[in-house]
Amino acid sequence: MPWCPKCKNEYVDGVKTCVDCGCDLVGSLEEMEKEGLIFGTQEEMEELLSFLSCNGIKSGELRFDETEDLYELFVSPEEKGRASRYSGIFQKEKNLREKKKAINNNSFEDMQEELAETEEEAEEEAVEAAPAGPVYEAASQKAENFKSGAYTLLGAGIVGMLLLICLLAGVLPIQLNGSTKYLTGGVMGALFLVFIVMGVLSLKSSRQFEGKAKEESALKEELRRWCDENITAEAVDASIPDLPDAEEARYFRRTERIRAMISENFLNLEAGYLENFVDEIYPQFFGEDGQ
Question: Which of 30, 44, 65, 219 could form an SS bridge with 40, CB 3.0 to 4.6 Å?
């Protein structure tokens, strides 16, 4: 049954537009879950939709609003935040191109100042648009952390247990009598035993991550060989439509493209691992300054 995405009214089959608002009806409730992002002309919205799609936002959809006589871009709620930020970058870059075209008709000095400000804003927008996820931690680092924690827990547990035995045996110059002696011994003994058990478990986890670290090292070598043979800076830039002039924006567009190229050939790579790897090899292709 068709539904109105604005009024949330259900219609019988055959009805194409909402009688209340004039919007085109959608075929399912799933389509209604998408949220409006921005209005504009058909040409503007199609250009923005293409830009968002190139940046990994796949839920975009254009709908015509007869009441406003405009097109509206819809995206899923999960991608709306990123889509909004990339929409800002798109507008900044569009304004930048328009200002560059107008240089011949305006004062060169004034336009240079405006261009510098626009590029600065585009760089800030690009930084904000970067996906904010948990920082990736290599398996080797996790193994080292678990091993360090294991030694600390085992040391504290064993030393504590020895001191407790000495205390209960009367070796230490501290006297506990009656129920206090047994209560203290029971509580402290249980605590130190927990330390020892946690230490053993942490040591076991560290060995597991050491094995995973070897696998990651082998995978990284394989990825590096593949990138050396199949990726060049020229090929990456050539595959990105409308490569921006702002260096920060270039960095994010390039790294996204490299991640996509690698993912096409190496399936099921962890997102954090892939992002960390691309950050490592980026200077190899574009240098420290990104040129």
Answer: 44
